[in-house]
Amino acid sequence: MVPLSWYLILSAGLFSIGLFGVLTRRNAVAILLGVELMLNSVNVNLAAFWRYGDVTQMAGQVFAIIVFAVAAAEVAVGLALVISVYRKRNTVIADDIDLMKW
Amino acid sequence: MTQLDFQTLLPLTILTVWACVLLIVDLFIPKNRKGITAVLAALGLAVTLSFTILQIGRENSGYSGMVVLDGFSTFVNALILVSGLLGIALAYGYVKRMGLERGEYYTLLLFSVVGMMLMAQAADLIVVFIALELLSIPLYVLAAFSRTSAESEEAGIKYFLLGAFATGFVVYGTALVFGATGTTSLVGIVGSASNGTSSLLLTIGAALILVGFGFKVAAVPFHMWTPDVYQGAPTSVTAFMAAGAKIAGFAALLRVFATAFPTLATDLTDILWALSAVTMILGNVVAISQTNIKRMLAYSSIAHAGYILMAFVPYGNKDIMPISIAAGLFYLVSYVFTNFGAWGVVIALEKSEGKGLEIGDYAGLGRKYPALAAAMTVFMLSLIGLPPTLGLVGKFYLFRAVIAGGYTGLAIIGVVTSLVSAYYYLRVVVTMYMKDGEPTTEREPMLDFTTAFTAIVTVVVSLVPQWLFLLASNAVLKLF
């Protein structure tokens, strides 16, 4: 069987890629993709911890499903916001959304 | 579901059902009379508040230990509900004047309040996560509520992107804690952690959760979104967001750290110390250079997050912890009233298209509208922490608790940054009384009432603060 640490490394890698995407991407939709990658890396973690821990405890699986559902709700709101910004400014590049700066 | 489960979440259930029903009822209310929706939403909050008050003294946990009801949750819930009511009172005339009057505003606000209340009652990391999202998602929408204004859209998308980013940290941290301890229940975590299971994973998990909550309560260095969002969002939303999200964030932070991670106190105390110090310093120093009042109050809100974080620093010390947390709760109460009052004055002077928001626009207010200027002076004094206001009493309790915990250095930073903050708060007062100008204000009965009410509370309670502190102390007593 694949050891637990491999899953954790995979998950940490996915999380880091997502984090990198959020920090370097300029397109709001791409930033959103990065966030999704971060959330999904959590699901890998949860499923792995559940499988290698006490299998009768369902908390890990339940949590993974809840993360899916909440992520979907979040994306629905996020894409709506992106679309409404796009309608007004014809751009979704984060650097151009800069009316307010100190 | 037993009756006990039901009682644990009774106020929350009432408000959720009320908000859902209001969504439907709102469809039948004509477009030009959305004030009715506001009244109905406020009625829902008031009913929930009365049920919350009836729960005082009750303690139990429900839904297999997923949620709890105790003095702390009751105190925090009551404070959140009062913020909701004040938020609606501020919004009532403002949204009409700004052409934003749509029924969703009030239902979204109710859903956000539900999330905040759930956050205070959560006893399981899964519930903490759900509550966090339930409070945040409506706030993203509310921040972008003024669809005709580019600033509001920008505020919404910035808040959303950074909020979702912070959520990623919270869930990843939660997953690591789950891996380290095999449970997501706060009580279970501490039981497992004291057995000496792999503590590195647990420490990283707790640190990531702290980062996520740091974003929500706007602590430096996770504060970048705050000024932009507070400035761009409709002012009534900003007022509600500044108060509500802070209360809920700190309530969850407190419960999670005090209940689940007391074993990590040696590692985390220094981090909290640094976070608090940096937040106070940066918030207050950057606020000096602001000319826009909304942006200035945003930085002031960051600085106050730092003061409240002070209460968390001695959290590993069992003797100091109760009074320190009680001081934190007291400070939250004082911040809520002062905050709503100050934003109320901002709303009174705000014109459409973002006019009337520069500090210079306050010139001459003292001569033309003495009552409004007096109220603003009270709020500014309270934010600095000068007598005779609630802000002074709050800071006094806070500094006393921190010094008792042996963190005199932090208390000194707190006092010095308060002195720095006097500069920019008093500048508003000076502009109001010493400079000439012809300010125009909007007089709305609800707005006048809210401003007057918060100003009176800020002054009167500061003269007899003991009962409130006693209430806060009793609320935290059973937490440990």
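qc> The mean pLDDT of chain A is 89.
qc> done
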